[in-house]
Write a structure and sequence with these properties.
It is a multi-pass membrane protein. With 453 residues, the protein is mostly helical. The protein has a single domain, classed as Amino acid/polyamine transporter I, CATH 1.20.1740.10. The chain is 69% helix and 0% strand. The protein is globular, with a radius of gyration of 21 Å. The termini are close together.
Length: 453
């Protein structure tokens, strides 16, 4: 098997097919996923008509941690993401594994939740089918596209991202029309739930809104497949987050102004309420857009999960079988099959609300480790230029993560703990194989830059 030279001099078995625009759309598509389509009502329950405020706070929190990722990805451009950074920073295999597996568990848990969202009310507009079996079939189709290749997957992402952005822009335009004809009420934008203060409403809403912004971190796991990663990654990352933030804030402004917050809270498809209030458009059209958004989020999440499992196996943190690559396509086939199987189990056993909350908890643990790793690794100098975040940013980001972790519920800590405990079994297997000297499932990459297959 041939290898491609990496931009940091490290060869890679993965194909470098991701350009700057594709990376921007990858991140934008992953951030602009199902969260805002499904969780506007939940945010309104916490923050009333002021749901735009927790969206703004969540954006700022996401940008703090994004600065840490920009530094580490451009400093160490390789698959594995946060697990690799933890290994370099702390030098403790078990801790590195737990960080990486938290990310992996968050990915498959998120995909499970998105599959349930896909099989729910939006699909119910067209078909009356059982949710769990439909969600499992959906995950199998996502896995097939993932295995076909990163370039094919990201081309599909381009189309789906354009559709989901159009859907959110449509909500903004229709909400503005409702206000323009006098049917809305802009004064709702300052209304809070009864008995709730601004601070409590902002914090409670931000905990939910943060789920709508996560996804940017997945891009660290395709670093080996990005061309000229040190130059294009920071631009794509911050550009995508800023774009998503503007769209989310506009939705957060028009939705409660066009539709009473209580009506948003009581709907399983809150943005459909805005479309219905505006009139003149079949609800089926927007349901299709929402389904595309959910499908795109699931695809990108499973791309991340499989690449992370591959990268962890390459670092010896997971059994080496997970580093096996599909001949010809050069995609991590074993990692794709394994992560899809776990997502299917979670789909059959979990609820959308609990899965989404557990995703946030697991990612906060990952973000905390990554923000601290930035500071620790400042003493490690590499032989190429890279992005450098202001020191205050990772410090503030770590403090933010700690604050949000204190607000998580006990049942979500329990679910996250169960997932991590299961992961430790895989870690023990990897260590046992290493002690027995089990040979790698892949040939060692050549050190010279061989031509890409």
């Amino acid at each position: 098997m041939t290898t491609a030279p990496a931009t940091d001099g490290r060869p890679t078995r993965l194909r470098r097919a991701v350009t700057g625009p594709l990376l921007f759309l990858f991140i934008l598509g992953d951030v602009l996923g199902a969260g805002v389509y499904a969780l506007v009502g939940e945010m309104s329950a916490e923050s009333g008509g002021m749901l735009w405020l927790p969206l703004l706070v969540a954006l700022l929190m996401a940008l703090l941690t994004a600065a840490s990722y920009a530094e580490l990805v451009t400093k160490y451009p390789q698959a594995g993401g946060s697990a690799v950074y933890a290994q370099r920073a702390y030098g403790r295999p078990l801790l590195s594994f737990l960080v990486g597996f938290s990310m992996l568990a968050a990915g498959v848990t998120s995909a499970a939740g998105l599959s349930l969202a896909f099989a729910g009310d939006y699909l119910g507009t067209f078909l009356d089918v059982p949710a769990v079996p439909t969600a499992i079939v959906f995950l199998a189709l996502v896995a097939a596209l993932n295995a076909r290749g990163i370039k094919e997957s990201l081309r599909a992402n381009v189309v789906m991202t354009a559709i989901e952005v159009s859907g959110l822009v449509l909500v903004v335009v229709l909400g503005a029309l409702v206000l323009g004809r006098g049917d809305g009420d802009a004064s709702r934008l300052t209304q809070l739930p009864e008995g709730t203060g601004v601070a409590a409403a902002t914090l409670g809403g931000a905990l939910i809104a943060f789920y709508s912004f996560v996804g940017f971190e997945t891009s660290a796991n395709i670093a080996e497949e990005v061309r000229d990663v040190r130059r294009v990654y920071p631009r794509a990352l911050f550009g995508a987050l800023a774009t998503a933030g503007v769209v989310y804030l506009l939705v957060g402004l028009v939705a409660p102004a066009a539709v009473p917050p209580r009506q948003l809270q009581e709907s399983s498809g809150p943005l459909l309420e805005v479309v219905e209030a505006a009139g003149g458009m079949p609800l089926e059209v927007f349901s299709v857009i929402a389904l595309v958004a959910v499908a795109n989020g699931a695809l990108l999440t499973m791309i991340m999960s499989s690449r992370l499992a591959y990268g962890m196996a390459d670092e010896g943190l997971l059994p080496s079988v997970f580093a096996r690559v599909l001949p010809g396509r050069r995609t991590p086939v074993v990692a794709i099959v394994a992560t899809t199987a776990v997502a299917m189990v979670l789909t059959a056993t979990g609820s959308l609300v609990d899965l989404a909350s557990t995703v946030v908890l697991l990612l906060l643990l990952v973000f905390l480790s990554t923000n601290v790793a930035v500071l620790v690794l400042r003493r490690d100098h590499v032989g190429h230029d890279h992005f450098r975040a202001w020191t205050a940013l990772p410090v503030l980001a770590a403090a933010t993560c700690l604050g949000l972790l204190t607000q998580q519920q006990a049942r979500h800590w329990l679910l996250a703990g169960v997932l991590l405990a299961l992961g430790v079994v895989l870690y023990a297997l990897a260590r046992w194989s290493a002690r027995r000297g089990t040979p790698s499932t892949e040939p060692e990459p050549t050190r010279a830059g061989a031509p890409d297959a």
